[in-house]
Write the structure tokens for this entry.
Amino acid sequence: MTESITVPTPQQIIEPAVAGRTETMVLNMGPHHPSTHGVLRLVLELDGEVVVNVAPDVGYLHTGIEKTMESKTYQKAVVLTDRMDYLAPLSNNLCYALAVEKLLDVEIPERAQIARVLLVELQRIASHLVWLGTHALDLAAMSVFLYAFREREQILDIFELVSGARMMTSYFRIGGLAYDLPSDFIPTVEQFLAIMPSRIDEYEDLLTTNPLWLERTVGVGVIDAQSAIALGLTGANLRATGVAYDVRKAMPYSGYETYSFEIPVGKNGDIYDRYRVRIAEMRQSVKIIQQATERLRELGPGPVVTPNRKVAPPPKREITESMEALIHHFKLWTEGFKPPRGDAYVSIESPRGILGCYVVSDGSPKPWRVHFRAPSFINLQSLAHMAKGRMVADLVALIASLDPVLGEVDR
Amino acid sequence: MDNQTVLTALREKFAGEILAVNEFRGDLSLTLTPQGYVAVARFLRDDPAFAYTFLENLCGVDYLGRTPRFEVVAHLTSMRHRHRVCLKVGCDEPEPTVPSLTPLFPTANYQEREAFDLLGIRFEGHPSLTRILLPDDWVGHPLRKDHPLGDEEVAFTFNQDRIYAHKPFVKE
């Protein structure tokens, strides 16, 4: 089964053409192409308008984030994680923070846990809204884009409220949050929750039964569950094939096991099912956010960073009174904390799929090695498998349905 | 599924191939010989009692100063049993080589190419081991610890002559 799956490289497509193959044509798509969602270059082998083979050529946005992290202290490296998947920076923050917290073996206060879950689910909605808008735009449905960005704007305003930044938030730190949630946080989130379900209905009205949308998505880009797992396809793309695998349920983190929500799954593994799964995921996220806001209100104010002074600095008031606190503060700011020797791997369910972080510590204040399992990067491998035998126009829909973020592909 | 069950089964079948067993923060990791690395991955994938059909993560690490210098780390996940096992295999200079997992798990393709590109680890049996993130004509492997970082030296009055001597300036 898995032996028949191949992942071609650009060279494998270009070289026969250079050598004189004339039955098929090689066409270059991107890196500057509006429907490749960033600087993704595709090398297509075409027979007329039919795609015979396709190879993604990635790396145009490679900035060496993993290497740069090796020369930052653990806490300072958080900012770099934002820049990978720039449509879901909070998910990246969370994944990295969880990995280092696993190395350190620290407990996070409940208020911080709930805030993390709440914000990450908001992030999932924001990210899915960009996917929905651009996906529809690629298939010539202009208005969905405008509606989707209207709601995304509201979510970004919430992020600005809590972290001061709309996109590069760096709000989750190792040991908890950067600072406490503002007092008007819960009312603002509730305002958003009040309108969101009806807005999702609005998008569905525009697309779910739209004949033009169905024409372009149903039965296009089909992949079966077994090939999807073999190719490492994750997230909504995997669940569209009928595999109900979600890290939030399978290996819960940050207390996801205490929230009630469902994993939406598809059946056919085509573009339309991926669309249905992501729309349903947004509704589930709204449900989780509702539960989280209730919990936050019940819990009331409290600490948002770990009381472990070797990891998180003491409050300012304590520094003026306690020598110990002053030393801890000084050590953390001049040197940083030192996790024990070892390695830890943590994976979370990011909007794009399974985001993993592997951190190796050599006992110094800087990570020896950080590796990210980037879902966009690995999902791209299945493009050729899905696109073979389809039209070039279907390929455009297919890229959008995989929802890659090139910042994360290239890191 | 728990760590002990997996470990007992693997110790029974692959006693000679397991070089070290480590449990850190509840995660099981096994250091294996190159032959054992592929054999264990195949066994874990194909045995219906385990069904580790999903290769979640594969990456290389450069432990400069240690022997063997490089290590390839693979995380296998069983979606059915909701359990993860970490397999490690070492390889050393001058030609760090490990067997490829791509024939077993097609998803390893890009991840092994990335490890080859950034760390220079060769994967035997990989169908198309070429650079993926960096340009094809790039020299060196930047994630190696001995790769020069290439920062710009700052020019002050005491050292500017030396620095400017090998810098191209527009001549009037």
